[in-house]
Amino acid sequence: MSHPPPRSPIGGGWECHGPVVSCTRHITVVSLVRLSRRQEVPVVQRPEELVDVLPGAQPFLDREAEAGTPGQRRGLVLVHDLAGEFDAAHAGALAGAHLLSSLPHEVIARFDVDSLVDYRAHRPRITFTGDRYESFTAPEILLYALEDDGGAPFLLLHGAEPDFAWERFVAAVGLLVERLGVTSVVSLQALPMPVPHTRPVTVTAHASRRQLIESYPVYWAEMRIPGSVAALLELRMGEAGVDAFGVAAHVPHYLAQATYPAASLTLLEHLEQLTGLHVPTEALREAAEANRTEIDEQIARSPENVAVVASLEQQFDSFAAAREGTGLLGAAGEMPSGDQLASEFERFLAEQDRKRPGD
């Protein structure tokens, strides 16, 4: 007996095979336009359909609507930490979480994570108690309005990195940038590097135009590295004429899977330097000092680890002396090539995949 294939309630198709019907569903991210009771046509979501603007955004919208010329725009800074797995030691995410725990804030926009996040890849947590499921902790991508220590408003885009619809997500952020009066978009992230934890955390700066990071050294020519939403957002904002820039803290490669608050502290210090915002850092500084003590104790238990750190210290100091204090280095005090750096990124992401729970 044959059976008609089931209909998908949210779009996408089914493939059915064999005398005993076996169906495989192919899902696309869509919304539905109902033409009649019997016909539904899948339509790809427009960027504005990926985000709900909440009442807290209204003061920003009203002020921007009153701006008659570009010079009258609010000039808001939008900070984002959506580096996801491209964030060694979760340093960018920790920096964003610290801002939310330390400063007054309000959610002003919420993104549609059901359309953007692959739940099977990240496995959100469900609480099970005794004989029942009690709660589900869904991922979030939220836009917050905050005030710095001086009362200056700024925005923070915080949460999970989208897995799907990168271009539409970036376009949706671009619409918010335009409507809310944002003139600077700043990313915070971290990269695994062959540097020791016993030296100051250094950074790589990047920007849509050189003038935004003129005081920072240039380390690279051209290289191809794994992409991220943060990188695409900076690229597209720059193409649209919005100042987009950021810093990536260098995390010791042997701590890339751990928590390393020293890198988060460094990110916030550079955020202040680049934007003029005044953000609290004392709690992170204390956490970094305690973390340093723990790392030293763990390293000291292994002569092999002590030797590795000593070698990295020698390389770091050699390169820093040659480059007047900059601290990105490779073997024998030489800076790693673009290919070496790209390989390190690939290795880091592969390690993340291996640690991810199986589907």
Describe, in short, the structure shown:
The protein has helices spanning 58-66, 91-102, 113-116, 119-122, 166-180, 229-239, 261-275, 282-300, 303-322, 338-355, and strands at 13-17, 22-26, 30-34, 40-44, 51-53, 76-80, 105-111, 126-129, 132-136, 141-147, 153-159, 182-193, 203-207, 243-252. With 359 residues, the chain is an alpha+beta fold.
Describe this structure in words.
- The protein has about 350 residues and is an alpha+beta fold.
- It has 2 domains: about 1-45, no CATH class; about 50-290 and about 340-355, Rossmann fold (3-Layer(aba) Sandwich).
- The chain is built from 10 helices and 14 strands.
- The chain has helices at about 60-65, 90-100, 115, 120, 165-180, 230-240, 260-275, 280-300, 305-320, 340-355; strands at about 15, 20-25, 30-35, 40-45, 50-55, 75-80, 105-110, 125-130, 130-135, 140-145, 155-160, 180-195, 205, 245-250.
- It has an 8-stranded mixed beta sheet with strand order 5-7-10-11-6-12-14-13, sandwiched between helices. It has a two-stranded antiparallel ribbon with strand order 1-2.
- It starts with 12 loop residues before the first strand and ends with a helix.
- The model is unreliable at about 5-40 and about 325-335 (pLDDT under 50).
